[in-house]
Every structure is written in structure tokens, then in C-alpha cells.
Specification:
Oligomer: single chain
InterPro entries: Class_I_gatase-like, Peptidase_S51
Organism: Nocardia acididurans
Order of helices and strands: EHEHEHEHHEHHEHEEE
Pfam families: Peptidase_S51
Shape: globular
Keywords: Hydrolase, Protease, Serine protease
Structural class: alpha/beta
Radius of gyration: 16 Å
Strand content: 15-25%
Protein name: Type 1 glutamine amidotransferase-like domain-containing protein
Distance between the termini: 25 Å
């Protein structure tokens, strides 16, 4: 299993992602965390395509809404990509779209077979954790039903054993939601990684590295 989980894009560790993937090739870009924001969604997608192209990748958006009720088709499609890139947005909307499309099962199967690298930031990282409780302080679960037609899910995929708090002390979090959430997890004895926008969690097989700023 190969996971690259960050607070914001590549953090300070682009080289580690490249080492995990090898020669840059096709990459499936999943932007469904932005589905509740239709006016902002196109620019959000474009903002991730450009840096991936600069690194030599060939990014293609893969919209999970096109695979609702077609989990086998989605798994076959994902299997054609050496890298899956899952951007930030609303973690609860992303989790719901994973469930509706079967991406949660397909990605677990492919990762356990080491068939691809999963790179996710912010919501794309948080969705891989065991539990999403606490993230409602920044992401609105009420956006799920109007967009996805189902109730919010509070379970993550559980492919890492710590929760993730992204954007610690980031300019994108001027109200300090992340610092307060990290404090709440710490006070409750909940295992977590509080990540600045430069930090990355890398999982390769049984090895887990938490990489900080340089």
C-alpha cells in the first residue's frame, strides 16, 4: 500500500511523491470534495491540473458522479492509473461520493494489491482515516444530502490508524479551527496527525513516515 497524505497538495515533499510513483504518467484527478460548490468547482479542478502537468504528469479528471451504481466499472477505470490524486474540499461530501460510486471499496482493493499510489490532500487525506468526527468544525455535513441524496457518513476508509487535522496554523484557517480540533483530539486521547501545509504522511507497506517542513 502506498499513500501520500498531505494538508495542501505536495507539502514540502514533492520528491517523495515522485519517488513513490516513478516515471510521471497518467493520473486520475478526483475533485468530488468540491461538488457542493458548482460555481467554484471548475477553477478548483484546473488549479490542480496545472501543477501536476508541470511535474510531467498527464492528469485527467475522474468524476465519481459518473460511476454511481457502477462500482466494477470504476475499479476497472482506476486500475488504469498509476496515481490517483484526490483534492480537498468538503470531507463529508467526498466520503458520500466515495460510497455512492464504490470508490471506497475499489480504492481499498487496488491499494491492498499495490496497484496504484493514492495521493490526497486536506479532505482527500482525511477520508482515509478511521473516523471523521470533529471535522464538522470546518466542513459542513449539511452539504451532503442536497448534493448526494444520502445522509452524511462519519466513518473514513480506515487505511491509516490516526485521524488527520489539516491546515495547522495555515493562512487558509485564520479562525484557528485546526488548532482547536488538534487540542480536542489530544485532550480526548485520540490518535491524530496535525499537519501544517508543508507536512506529509507517507505510507509504504508497513512503514509510516510523518515528514515535516524543510
Amino acid at each position: 500500500m502506498r499513500l501520500f497524505l498531505s494538508s495542501y497538495r505536495f507539502g514540502a515533499h514533492t520528491d517523495r511523491l515522485l519517488a513513490m510513483v516513478g516515471e510521471p504518467g497518467r493520473v486520475a484527478v478526483i475533485a468530488n470534495a468540491c461538488d457542493a460548490w458548482p460555481s467554484a468547482r471548475p477553477s478548483a479542478v484546473s488549479s490542480d491540473l496545472f501543477p501536476l502537468r508541470r511535474m510531467g504528469f498527464q492528469p485527467e479528471e475522474l468524476d465519481l458522479r459518473n460511476y454511481v451504481g457502477r462500482p466494477a466499472d470504476l475499479e476497472r477505470t482506476l486500475a488504469g492509473f498509476p496515481l490517483v490524486w484526490v483534492r480537498g474540499g468538503n470531507t463529508f461530501v467526498l466520503r458520500a461520493q466515495f460510497a455512492r460510486s464504490g470508490a471506497d471499496v475499489a480504492l481499498r482493493n487496488l491499494l491492498e494489491a499495490d496497484a496504484l499510489v493514492y495521493a490526497g490532500y486536506s479532505a482527500g487525506a482525511c477520508v482515509m482515516t478511521p473516523d471523521l468526527h470533529g471535522l464538522e468544525s470546518a466542513d459542513d455535513p449539511a452539504e451532503v444530502r442536497p448534493v448526494c441524496g444520502i445522509e452524511p457518513r462519519w466513518d473514513g476508509l480506515g487505511l491509516v490508524d490516526h485521524r488527520i487535522v489539516p491546515h495547522l496554523d495555515s493562512p487558509t484557517d485564520p479562525q484557528g479551527f485546526s488548532r482547536r480540533l488538534a487540542r480536542d483530539y489530544r485532550d480526548a486521547g485520540i490518535a491524530h496527525w496535525a499537519l501544517t501545509d508543508e507536512d506529509v504522511v507517507v505510507v509504504e507497506g508497513d512503514r509510516v513516515d510523518v515528514l515535516g517542513a524543510r
